[in-house]
From TrEMBL:
<dbReference type="GO" id="GO:0005829">
    <property type="term" value="C:cytosol"/>
</dbReference>
<dbReference type="InterPro" id="IPR024083">
    <property type="entry name" value="Fumarase/histidase_N"/>
</dbReference>
<dbReference type="InterPro" id="IPR029419">
    <property type="entry name" value="Arg_succ_lyase_C"/>
</dbReference>
<dbReference type="Pfam" id="PF14698">
    <property type="entry name" value="ASL_C2"/>
</dbReference>
<dbReference type="Pfam" id="PF00206">
    <property type="entry name" value="Lyase_1"/>
</dbReference>
<dbReference type="GO" id="GO:0042450">
    <property type="term" value="P:L-arginine biosynthetic process via ornithine"/>
</dbReference>
<dbReference type="InterPro" id="IPR000362">
    <property type="entry name" value="Fumarate_lyase_fam"/>
</dbReference>
<dbReference type="InterPro" id="IPR020557">
    <property type="entry name" value="Fumarate_lyase_CS"/>
</dbReference>
<feature type="domain" description="Argininosuccinate lyase C-terminal">
    <location>
        <begin position="367"/>
        <end position="435"/>
    </location>
</feature>
<comment type="similarity">
    <text>Belongs to the lyase 1 family. Argininosuccinate lyase subfamily.</text>
</comment>
<feature type="domain" description="Fumarate lyase N-terminal">
    <location>
        <begin position="8"/>
        <end position="304"/>
    </location>
</feature>
<dbReference type="InterPro" id="IPR008948">
    <property type="entry name" value="L-Aspartase-like"/>
</dbReference>
<protein>
    <recommendedName>
        <fullName>Argininosuccinate lyase</fullName>
        <ecNumber>4.3.2.1</ecNumber>
    </recommendedName>
</protein>
<dbReference type="GO" id="GO:0004056">
    <property type="term" value="F:argininosuccinate lyase activity"/>
</dbReference>
<dbReference type="InterPro" id="IPR009049">
    <property type="entry name" value="Argininosuccinate_lyase"/>
</dbReference>
<comment type="pathway">
    <text>Amino-acid biosynthesis; L-arginine biosynthesis; L-arginine from L-ornithine and carbamoyl phosphate: step 3/3.</text>
</comment>
<dbReference type="InterPro" id="IPR022761">
    <property type="entry name" value="Fumarate_lyase_N"/>
</dbReference>
Length: 462
């Protein structure tokens, strides 16, 4: 313990399991770049205060560069006493430039402001470098497919019962809409992630009057967290991110569930590409939709990350307590799972085969019963009445064991209601049914194309 960075007041050794239990380096090493950047800007702040000479600052910065190279090239050698990424980097800096100078970098700083500064930078960069572009690519693929396959019709479902014909592209557009909203929601969270805690010290503030705005600007933050107690202990941005991930995975899960159903032999609407399916060790004929099942299954895991960390957070007294170290494993798991899920969903959707004939063969005439009711509405009959009349037609066709309501004769129709004319048979056309729904958001070709246009412009507005 006497060798540890905080070892001065200790005489006894740490229990070996306690050391492992306490150490976060096995996962927080991921933030090495943010940690080194943070120290770089922080020491510039110290130099402005006269706490470091120009020459010392230069040596520190070149030492930090060297450490970054070691991490980048996977050559950083971890020391058994390293507790976390912050102590590991500081220990290494001392070895490279000498402890006399390295011993000054932590002046006025605490790991309490340091660790959460790193985490905010890490999240911001991951969003910018990965999640935003990945989400854009997912929505782009859905739009591209939707435009190419705009003519394909399929049954739309409520209660998983055939309801009304829609375009396959309309289904694609529905999930592209969820994912675009997810994208926008994530952008809004960014405003709260990208605030600087650095310079708040352990909890009470900085004793040498460091310029926190300078630190924030140097690290690309949009602002400074206005209370030092909050700066070190606020983890709301992590909760929000994991809630975001949970909601996103909920959308992914429902998207996957639809496709799982559509890929069964009973439906046969789509076929997964081999790249995203696996076989059975026993049954030679099997091709399973594992990619989709994992997209669905992993949504539970991400919710677990959120729920677990919220539980850890709820009883913590103000400011930093070690419970907060639990933020990282949950968050990293959530972010990796979400990122991979976006990539897998993108792969699935860009490579699956659409079985147009099966989709269209699944359309049945009773799905046009609403259109039949609308036919009489156009003749001036109140909808509540036409709904009833159309229902009687469906019942009659069923009783006569006809294949659909289009097989009833004009006489049979007129016996139910004299306002039916020979033009009623024009109702029995799926394409026209779909095309009638051309109001904003509907399934007509023009309306779906308009949706894609809107989504494309929203997903590319940063
Ligand atoms: N590894 C710690 C964390 O991630 C760093 C902060 C430690 N601070 C402290 N006072 N022990 O939360």
């Amino acid at each position: 313990n006497t060798q540890k960075l905080w070892g001065g007041r200790f005489t006894g050794e740490t229990d070996p399991l306690m050391h492992l239990y306490n150490a976060s380096l096995p996962y927080d090493y991921k933030m090495y770049k943010a940690d080194l950047e943070g120290t770089k800007v922080y020491t510039s702040g110290l130099q402005k205060l006269g706490l470091l000479t120009e020459d010392e600052l230069k040596k520190i910065h070149s030492g930090l560069e060297e450490i970054k190279k070691e991490w980048d090239e996977d050559k950083f050698v971890r020391h058994p006493n390293d507790e976390d990424i912050h102590t590991a980097n500081e220990r290494r800096l001392g070895e490279i430039i000498g402890r006399n100078i390295a011993g000054k970098v932590h002046t006025g700083r605490s790991r309490n402001d340091q660790c959460v500064t790193d985490l905010r930078i890490y999240c911001r960069d991951l969003l910018n470098d990965k999640l935003f572009p990945d989400l854009q690519a997912l929505v782009d693929v859905m739009i591209k497919r939707g435009k190419e396959e705009i003519d394909v019709l399929m049954p739309g479902y409520t209660h998983l019962q055939r309801a009304q014909p829609i375009r396959w592209s309309h289904w694609l557009s529905s999930y592209a809409t969820y994912f675009t909203e997810d994208f926008k929601r994530l952008r809004q969270i960014m405003d709260r992630i990208n605030q600087s805690p650095l310079g708040a010290g352990a909890l009470a503030g900085h004793p040498y009057g460091i310029d926190r705005e300078f630190l924030a600007a140097g690290l690309g933050f949009d602002g400074v967290i206005g209370n030092s107690l909050v700066a070190v202990s606020d983890r709301d941005f992590i909760v929000e991110l994991m809630f975001w991930g949970t909601l996103f995975m909920n959308h992914i899960s429902r998207f996957a569930e639809d496709l799982i159903i559509y890929s069964t032999a009973e439906f046969g609407f789509i076929k997964l590409n081999d790249a995203y399916s696996t076989g059975s060790s026993l049954m030679p004929q099997k091709k399973n939709a594992d990619s989709l099942e994992l997209l669905r299954g992993k949504s539970g895991r991400v919710f677990g990350d959120l729920a677990g960390f919220l539980m850890s957070l709820k009883g913590i007294p103000s400011t930093y307590d070690k419970d907060m170290q639990e933020d990282k494993e949950a968050l990293f798991d959530c972010l990796v799972t979400v990122e991979h899920s976006i990539l897998i969903a993108t792969g699935v959707i860009s490579t699956l085969f659409v079985q147009k004939e099966n989709m269209e063969n699944a359309l049945t005439m009773d799905m046009l019963a609403t259109d039949l009711a609308d036919y009489l509405v156009r003749k001036g009959v109140p909808f509540r009445e036409t709904h009833h009349i159309s229902g009687e037609c469906v019942a009659l066709a069923e009783n006569l064991k006809l294949s659909g309501i289009d097989k009833l004769t004009l006489e049979q129709y007129q016996k139910i209601d004299s306002r039916f004319g020979p033009d009623l048979f024009e109702t029995f056309n799926f394409e026209q049914s779909v095309e009638r729904r051309d109001a904003t958001g509907g399934t007509a070709k023009s309306a779906v194309l308009k949706q894609f246009e809107n989504l494309a412009s929203q997903i590319h507005t940063i």
